[in-house]
Design goal:
The complex is a heterodimer. By secondary structure, chain A is of the alpha/beta class. Chain A has seven helices and ten strands. In chain A, helix 2 (about 95-100) crosses helix 3 (about 105-110) and helix 4 packs parallel to helix 5 (about 160-170). The radius of gyration of chain A is 18 Å and the shape is globular. Chain B is elongated, with a radius of gyration of 15 Å. Chain B is mostly helical. Helices cover about 80% and strands about 0% of the residues of chain B. Classes of the chains: A alpha/beta, B mainly alpha. At the A-B interface, helix 2 of A face helix 1 and helix 3 of B.
Chain lengths: ~220, ~100
């Protein structure tokens, strides 16, 4: 079934600096939206407002026609991967999987090449890359219709990034995904729609030249990419 | 047990458990002043556990482990629910201990 997430009229101001000005974004099942933008343009803030963990001055979030004030409170609608690790460090990997996906999920992770040997470890004992991989895989296998990934490839080895991109593309058949990362090549590679957040507005991007035009990429970078 | 009950209660139990070290530590320190009698010791422990202990553990979470709240958000549990559960369970345990202290 195709689901639709719409966010409209998002306004957010931090100490007299309006970073989000009347944002509109639509995401449906099958979409992988690459959200690009320079530092401090409000990408993470926009994702948090969408998720419901942060409030905007105004915002209007609708999932399948139903309006949500805090979307995360309706389980199975939306999940969010923050920039930094969010798994409780005192838990074991196996307990975390059980809490997130139920007992059925454990077997699935035991068969995983990277996670299989780590299921009995504590979250605290995982490396940054292993932790990121676990977090992304948990969210991809959750029942959420929409996933928001804030810098998913940060601190992950290139070979694992490739695995993650394959997984993200495969799961997008049943989910809508919005992701942001400063490694724009990975974003361009995995996403099928692109937006640039600049001067508080969201602009649709269709070519690499657009990113240069709006000042996200230096003029020298675009030609050979 | 119904599956929905487990999916809601198990994460709440994980959160509550993670606040216990600090709140029990705080309550134990405060209850040293009541070593003169077992009844006073239990009463001081309960009061400290219910008030300062709860406050300290939640403040510690807020200041150092704020990102972990996203774990619970992703399971559909709000920060208010987590904090209220923690306070209520501590009050319940504290009240039970105070009642017990009357009989020792």
């Amino acid at each position: 079934m195709c689901s639709l997430l719409e966010i409209d009229s998002v306004i957010k101001t931090y100490s007299d600096n309006r970073i989000l000005t009347d944002i509109y974004l639509k995401c449906q099942t099958g979409d992988i939206i690459g959200l690009l933008g320079r530092n401090g343009t409000g990408k993470s803030t926009l994702l948090k407002i969408l998720f419901g963990s942060e409030q905007g001055e105004t915002k209007f979030i609708r999932i399948d026609g139903k309006v949500h004030n805090r979307a995360y409170q309706t389980k199975g609608e939306i999940a969010y991967l923050p920039q930094d690790s969010f798994l409780p460090h005192q838990l074991t990997v196996i307990k975390t999987i059980e809490l997130f996906l139920g007992k059925d999920g454990i077997q699935f992770f035991e068969q995983d090449e990277l996670m299989g040997r780590l299921v009995n470890n504590k979250i605290n004992d995982l490396s940054g890359g292993e932790l990121r991989y676990l977090e992304i895989k948990l969210l991809l296998n959750s029942s959420s219709k929409f996933l928001l990934f804030d810098e998913p490839f940060n601190g992950v080895a290139p070979v694992v990034v490739d695995q993650l991109k394959v997984m993200i593309k495969a799961h997008s058949k049943n989910k809508g995904i919005i992701l942001t990362d400063h490694d724009y090549r990975n974003v361009l590679d995995v996403a099928n729609r692109y937006c640039l957040l600049t001067d508080g507005s969201l602009r649709a991007i269709s070519t690499l030249e657009d990113l240069i035009k709006w000042g996200y990429l230096p003029v020298s970078s675009g030609v050979n990419t | 047990m119904p599956k929905n009950f487990i999916t809601k209660v198990a994460p709440l139990a994980v959160f509550y458990k993670s606040t216990l070290t600090l709140s029990i530590g705080f309550a134990s320190m405060m209850s040293i002043f009541g070593l003169a009698s077992l009844s006073l010791f239990i009463q001081l422990f309960s009061m400290a556990h219910m008030s300062g202990g709860t406050l300290c553990s939640l403040l510690y979470k807020e200041l150092t482990l704020k990102n972990e709240y996203y774990f619970y958000y992703n399971l559909g549990i709000s920060k208010t629910t987590l904090m209220l559960t923690c306070c209520l369970v501590n009050i319940l345990i504290g009240a039970m201990l105070i009642v017990i202290s009357r009989y020792v």
